[in-house]
Amino acid sequence: MDDCIFCKIIKGIIPSYKIYEDKEYLAFLDISQFTRGHTLVIPKKHVNYIWNVKNIAEYMKLVQNIGKHYRNKGYIYVDMMVFGRDVPHVHVHLIPHNGNQTDYNNALKGIGELQSDINRRPNKENGDKIVNELKYEN
Ligand code: ZN
Question: What are the extents of the domains in the chain?
Answer without folding.
Answer: 5-100
